[in-house]
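Note to self: keep these together.
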Amino acid sequence: MKLGIVGLPNVGKSTLFNSITKAGAESANYPFCTIEPNVGIVAVPDERLEKLADLYHSQKITPAVVEFVDIAGLVKGASKGEGLGNKFLSHIRETDAICEVVRCFEDSNIVHVDGSIDPIRDIETIKLELILADIETVEKRLDKAKKMLKADKKYQEEIDLLGRIKLALENGMPARQLDYNEDEKNMLKEMFLLTSKPFIYIANISEEQLADCENNENVKKVREYAKAEKAEVIPLCVKIEDELSSLEEPDKKEMLEALGMKESGLDTLIKKSYALLGLMSFLTAGETEVRAWTIKKGTKAPEAAGKIHSDMERGFIKAEIISYDELMQEGSMVQAKEKGLVRQEGKEYVMQEGDIVLFKFNV
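Structure:
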C-alpha cells in the first residue's frame, strides 16, 4: 500500500513524514524544501504479532507495511506546471490513496503560503489543481475512445463513463463522489484519475487544541467538507507526533497517557488508511517467523497463498486455518487441534481478518 502525503507548503507534511518513518526528510520553513519525493516504509501496528512470537518462540517478526511518499508542496497553477506542479502530479498518480495535511492552527513563526489560516481555502486550492489535471486526462482519453469507436462499438461504454466524469469534474466534483457499477469501476482503475483516489484529510492542530480538537472550529469545517466528499478526517498534532516518534516504547506510552490518548495519531492514520483501501491482514506463524500479510477484503485462499509465493497459488491444495482469537484462547496449536478448532478450507474460502494460516500446496 502506497500513500501520498500532500498539502500546501509549510502545513506540516515533511514533519509528519519524519514522524512516520524516522527517515529524516528535511523540514524547513520555506516553500519547496521537498523537491524530490521522500519514500519511507512503516509497519502497520499489530499487537498480535508479539503475542504469537511469544507463543511460537519465533526468531523473527515481520509486520505488514505501508509505504508513505512525502510529495513536494503544491501551489495554485500546479496543473499547468506552476511551482513543482508537474512533478507533484506524476508522483501522486503512483499512490493508492492521498493524505492531505491541512493546517488548522495559528503560528506567527511559521509562514503560510497564502498569508493566513483557512483550511477550506487550502483544500479547494489542491482540489482544483487535481480536478484540472483530471479534466485534461479525461479529454485525451475521450478523444482516443471516440476514434476507436469507429472500429469497435465496445468503446461506447467508456465514452459514456468519461462523459459523465468530465461533467462532474467541470462542476467541481471529484471523480470519487460518483457512483459506479462493477464494469465502470474496472474502467476507472485504468484511468489513474487523481480525484478518484481515496482521500484522508489530516487536520494539523496545535498541542493546546489537542484536548478539545472535536470542538475546534477549523476541524469542524474540515469534517463538514470531507463528509460531502466521501473523505476521512483525522485530527492530529504533527508536532506531538514528531516528539512521540523519537521516544522509546515505555516513554511513548507514558506521554500518550499524559496526553489522554489511547494511541498515537500516526497509528490511527495507518489503521484508517488500511481500512479506507479495504485491506486486511492474515497471519503465518512458526519458530522461524511470525508475519502479517496484506490482502484485499474478499480475497480467496489461493490468491492469499500467492502473496507468499506464486507456486503456492498455482499448486494450492488446501489451507489449515484457525482464528487468532481462538488460538490465543486455547494457548497452543496442539490444544486447538484437539478441540477441532483448526479448519481445513478449500479454494472457495474467503479469508478473514486475523486468520492464522498454513497453506498446503504441490507443484
